[in-house]
Amino acid sequence: MSQPPSSSRVFPWLVGTIVLAAQLLMVREVAGPVVYADELGYIAAARYFAPGQPDVQMLSAFYHFGYGLMLSPLVTLVDEPGPFYRAATLFNAGLAAAATLIFHRVLLLRHLLIEPRLAALAALGFGLTPSLLVNTSIVWAETALVFIITLMAASLPWLFAKPTAARAAVVGVVAASSYAMHPRAIVPALAVAMVLVAGGIAGRVRWPWVVVGLSAELTAVVAVRFVNGMLRSAIYTDGSLVQTAGGLGESIIASPGQWLAGLAGTLWYQLLGSAGLAGFGIVLLFRSSFDLSSPDLFSLRSSSRRGLLSDKEPTASPANSIDRRWPAMTFILLALLGSWLVGGFISISDTPRIDQFFYGRYLDMFAPLLTGLGVVEVGALA
Fold this sequence. Notes:
This protein is mainly alpha-helical. The protein contains 15 helices and no strands. The longest helix has about 30 residues.
């Protein structure tokens, strides 16, 4: 007599189906660009990398090449502007669903050892985060950044569980790929480097493998800058770029109060956009990054009553349990704090914006992670 499938096998497919359906529902009425300068910049890069396409120059913002490269096969398959745009949003929907599955199956179940039902609820919170649903319907790199950041968070425990030179190199390249998507993603890439060094200091990763990971990341970042320069010189002229504000350090020094107000507005945006769950997620990140005195990083109780930790690995030692959780959570915390401090710069841009105080896009790559982890924290408190 066949046994019914376990919840740990059913939930990932159920969660993925629900998230993909919601994403497809959001993009069904999309007709064309909304944020013209940004979207046209990515589309121009996609056309540049697609074989057999004519040279194109347009008045648009310049962005790193990664997302355009991901879209370039669609240009070959669907050359008409309208169908191409819809195909790109469908591609974003697939990326969002894939990121949700990585968060659920790899990060929550395999590395954080969360009980399957709570992990499914957290994954739904991740995949149905409002900013992720909205960004999917816009042809820019935000959804790709969510995918890459989630992959980075999942790759670090994978490395720490069995450190090898090959795994360290993969982690380094994955980290640098975020920088290929958007310049602000250099902060998460630096956070990966910091976690690698911390792993070497703590003796969890051999120093030769740390050096391999850092070297792979640095080499990939240099390659990204080279390709960006090639793209910029090929399809942009001096008059074809939308001007952007500069002078980050000078602006912060000149108006620290405005910068602090921008930090407050950015955080408020994330709290409102997640119904407060992002705040719980941030609390969980701090607790699990610094509470190394106990193997139970989430303050969850014993298995004598219904707990939230999975009982799949009852023989796992406390040290191994910490090793699997600490790298991912510390990476997310470091990347989030660094991006938050840099993101406050938008409030002191030289160009007036209607969304200056509440500008939250620069943290949107973390919003699904914070929402999903917030569900875990609420479950622990309950």
